[in-house]
Design goal:
It comes from Prauserella salsuginis. The chain is 35% helix and 12% strand. It is α/β, with parallel strands linked by helices and 583 residues long. Bound molecules: FE2/S2 (inorganic) cluster and magnesium ion. Residues 63, 94-95, 131-132, 169, 203-204, 208, 210 line the site of FE2/S2 (inorganic) cluster.
């Protein structure tokens, strides 16, 4: 029983939890203590509530470059509350250092997280993540492990400066690269900007996937109120880390397990916030995966209803113009939630033990700021993401309408088809490619199974010869994902994917494709019998199952986008309900 525990009913077990089986539990504890005492611990230290801290620091992960300072601050918080903090490593994933794609490794990280949480003697765990796939992987793992857990994000990077202009990763990375491809800027300038885009350690400074998942984690109540937005290198970030450590001891003693926080209400709140943030399309896939771990099925049709009534209020790139540090100064996620009071469930329980409504009541949101817009003056009148259906996407597809070119949201055009990423790389810049600005670029085989790993290759570049003519956007369609930092009229997550024989597999050059976001339609204007003939003549053969290793597991087990591209055997055995709930 730890000093400082509030009562005699402290249910924490500390070092006695989950002993390895040597057939004699007394001996097992004796051995465990002998070993950890080798690190210099006293019996007093070991007789306390144990809070594990997941250390995802890595020299290959600059988004987590403040990990040592964060761990120190979390430990301080744990000790202030009378607990014993112990950090341990898991896999760390960075977007640019994860071949073939970080998404391929997300489920592996979730398994690592789940199994280490279950293996170690932890009364509660602080999950420190930040870069795109890490927070989803940690939430998936913790949801499956079922112990008290609290999320802490590493925080956003600072913006940099380029020739008098503020820049940040990675909406500006893409914009500058687009200019370079279009010969608008030269070698020297692109090299200069390369040194300025990432101003410090921390996660991407726009509303990409990392910022989206940070906002979602806070909105779901699994992270402390106000904890999503402090930049990585600030005192605010360190204070949040200390407070997270302190609260971790509380959730251990109260046995406030993940399933008590991540409920239907919290998923609905998360989806609302995803929409109002102008958040990353990847957020949907990740939320579907986390929900699936708890037995909830993400219902895309109901999500689309939420989208129709949830305006984009947060003015951050790529849908708007600001950066995460600006959102922080403007009051962060609590300011947004305050604007969405009538659209979120204020009775949802948060990790503080209080409801979302109680937490918001303590916040002053009356000051003037320019980043979180009032409801009557949104960045975009509807949600950032729309769900499409049609004969090209029977199980759904999505488009980030808030980051698209408005005129292209209703568009019918001729398909220019690429069979896979390699085919696209080979031909996209070919001067002889038969492509016009009003065509529709179609890329197959970048879905969960096809690539495999559903890479962010859905952001198909504008063919060089068109880019040079000043074309900056075209309708682009694929079964892959795109970075949350990207803009354009880009239809993603087409399901079923082409590699499993979805209709996308049968699109041919010259076919007519219709996109109508108003009607929520993605269709191939090819008669059914013609499609059936194509299917017969050229049936899709699923990719060969690799002989061994993680790749074999992945190919055997991965689900489609609407199920989160999680592994089948990791999803909850029992389906409980759909989220959002039917309305
Ligand atoms: Fe890590 Fe963008 S690369 S958050
Ligand atoms: Mg990203």
């Amino acid at each position: 029983m730890a000093d400082g525990a509030s009562d005699a009913e402290d249910p924490t077990q500390g070092m006695t939890r989950g002993l390895p089986n040597y057939g004699d539990s007394g001996f097992s504890l004796f051995l465990r203590k002998a070993f950890i005492k080798g690190a210099g611990y006293t019996d007093d230290a070991l007789d306390r509530t144990v809070v594990g801290i997941v250390n995802t620091g890595s020299g290959f992960n600059p988004c987590h470059g403040n990990m040592p300072q964060l761990i120190e601050a979390v430990k301080r918080g744990v000790m202030l509350a009378g607990g014993l903090p112990v950090d341990f490593p898991t896999i760390s994933l960075h977007e640019s250092f994860s071949n073939p794609t970080s998404m391929y490794l997300r489920n592996l990280m979730s398994m690592d997280t789940e199994e280490m949480i279950k293996a170690l003697p932890l009364d509660a765990v602080v999950l420190i993540g930040g870069c795109d796939k890490t927070v989803p992987a940690q939430l998936m793992g913790a949801a499956s492990a079922g112990i008290p857990a609290i999320q802490l994000v590493t925080g956003s990077m600072l913006t940099g400066g380029h020739r008098g202009e503020r820049v940040g990763a990675c909406t500006d990375c893409r914009a500058f690269w687009g200019k370079y491809r279009g010969d608008e800027i030269d070698d020297q300038e692109i090299s200069e900007v390369n040194s300025s885009l990432v101003g410090s350690v921390g996660t991407c400074s726009v509303m990409g996937t990392a910022s989206t998942m940070a906002g979602i984690a806070e909105a779901m109540g699994i992270a402390l109120p106000g904890s999503a937005t402090p930049p990585a290198v600030t005192a605010d970030r360190m204070r949040v880390a200390e407070q997270t450590g302190t609260r971790a001891v509380g959730i251990a003693r109260e046995r406030l397990t993940v399933d008590k926080i991540l409920t239907e209400s919290s998923f609905e709140n998360a989806l609302r916030v995803l929409l109002a943030l102008g958040g990353s399309t990847n957020g949907i896939v990740h939320l579907a995966a986390v929900a699936g771990r708890l037995g909830f099925d993400l219902d895309l049709a109901t999500f689309d209803q939420l989208s129709r009534e949830t305006p984009v209020l947060v003015n951050l790139k790529p849908a708007g113009s600001h950066y995460m540090e600006d959102l922080h100064r403007a009051g962060g996620i609590p300011m947004l939630l305050d604007r969405l009071r009538d659209l979120v469930d204020l009775d949802a329980l948060t990790i503080t033990g209080r409801t979302l409504g109680e937490e918001l009541a303590d916040r002053d949101t009356s000051f003037t700021q320019e980043v979180v817009r009032p409801r009557e003056d949104p960045i975009y009148p509807a949600g950032s993401i729309a769900v499409l259906r049609g004969n090209l996407a029977p199980s759904g597809a999505i488009v980030k309408q808030a980051a698209a070119t408005p005129e292209l949201l209703e568009h019918t055009g001729r398909a220019v088809v690429f069979e896979n990423s390699a085919d696209m790389a080979e031909r996209i810049d070919d001067e002889n490619l038969d492509v016009r600005a009003d065509d529709v670029l179609v890329l197959k085989n970048i879905g969960p199974l096809g690539a495999p790993g559903m890479p962010e290759a859905g952001y198909i570049p504008i063919p060089k010869k068109l880019a040079r003519q000043g074309v900056t956007d075209m309708v682009r369609i694929s079964d892959g994902r795109m970075s949350g930092t990207a803009r354009g009229t880009i239809v993603l997550h087409v399901s079923p994917e082409s590699a499993v024989g979805g209709p996308l597999a049968y699109v041919r050059d010259g076919d007519t494709v219709r996109l109508s976001v108003a009607d929520r339609v993605l269709s191939l204007e090819v008669p059914d019998d013609e499609l059936a003939t194509r299917r017969e003549q050229q049936p899709v053969t699923p990719p060969e199952t690799p002989a061994r290793g993680y790749r074999k597991l992945f190919v055997d087990q991965v689900t489609q986008a609407e199920d989160g591209a999680d592994f089948r055997f990791l999803q909850a055995e029992q389906k409980r309900a759909s989220v959002p709930r039917a309305r």
